[in-house]
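Revision sheet: structure tokens.
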Amino acid sequence: MPGRWKVPDLAVVTGLAALAACLYTALSLVRLATLKAGAYDLVIFDQAIRSYSRFRLPVAMVKGVHNGFGPGFSVLGDHWSPILALLAPLYWISDRPETLLIAQAVLMASAAVPLWVFARRAAGRFAAYAVAVGYLLSWPVVEAVAFDFHEVAFVPLLTAVMLERWQAGRRSGVVLAALGLLCVKEDMGLLVAGFGLVLLTRAGWRWLGGAFVAVGLGFTVLASQVLIPAFGGRPDYYWAYGALGAGAGEAVRTVLTSPLTAVELLGTPPVKLLTLALLLGVTLFAALLSPLALMAVPLLAERMLASSFPNWWVPEYHYNAFLVVVVFAAGADAVRRWDPRWARGWAVGVVVFALACVPFFSLNQLGASNPRAVAAEQAVAAVPDGALVEAANYLAPALTARADVLLWDREPRWAPWVVAETGRKTFPFQSLDEQRARVELLRQKGYEVVFERDGFTVLRRR
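Predicted:
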């Protein structure tokens, strides 16, 4: 890269990433303060990282008890995410869930720097800035940082590094980034295999492409069928393809013998098509014109062929952030073939699309408030430090740093303390009436009310 632009431009894009990290942090903390962060999933990761920081397996009692695995359940039995151990030293500094939200903000924003470098080489300086800004404002990133904390925080950065190192011809960097991705989640083997498909189309990279396809697919099977069960999980826990078959073999046979069934699933329900359109829309569909789009196919198929777990295919939550860097890189790669005048117009369109999406996604919550927040603070303050407490989903994050938290759910756990919420429907209850009935049951069983205000009730077992 020419020296005349390398240092100042990288300083500018790093500054943009830093500003975005501050924005993401503010959004996450506002949602935490306004009772929109939950035990599922913020407290799960908080308990796991705290265990790592104490040189133990990443036990998340709140996950284990609620899902029937027991209080000693390690999250490695839920998803294969050993990379989370890298966050443990942060808990030596500040042992609080806010630490995870800040770390996630920094990780997600930092991906803009290697993505900018990739786009600068592929499509020029103007397009590179558009891609960086478009990524930092993109709805998949915003929705990810707005929904508590997840292992996806590592994926955009590792993906951007892998693509940039490939573009630079650095095989060792590509391999290291791919290995990092395999430590993020069991299905990241599909992302690595997808990149292998891309490499198979490039002279000089085909041997590595073949290795990525084989290792990626093999790792996904190994992690889901061997490693996760070894840590107490079930290999079929996230099987979501009942419409195709009862198991992987049957599902493959259905796809091969009745491909129309699979095609129908890709658009059933129609929100799957909306999500796909929004995801490709971040590059004005230019990503479809690049071979890099192949990289996204296996991971998209995993989600869109599912017939259960509806969270997987909607625009909300964090799942789209696994692929957003791939889409932007593919868009930049496609643009390099265009007339420069068209490329500049595309770059402007990318930024306009990102800005147009802002009012419809979670950044519009930055100025949010909750008049019940004061009562919530008083409710959790009534619980003593070190207590075992069943806490309503949105109150659990306020207690997890100083108490042993279980989820207040549909199965009474008879903990010494219970912090209930009846002012709004809360996960996993099915109605407010069910929540109120639970509070009444606790009273009948001898629990005494020590605090009650604005729909929050704190009960202590006598």
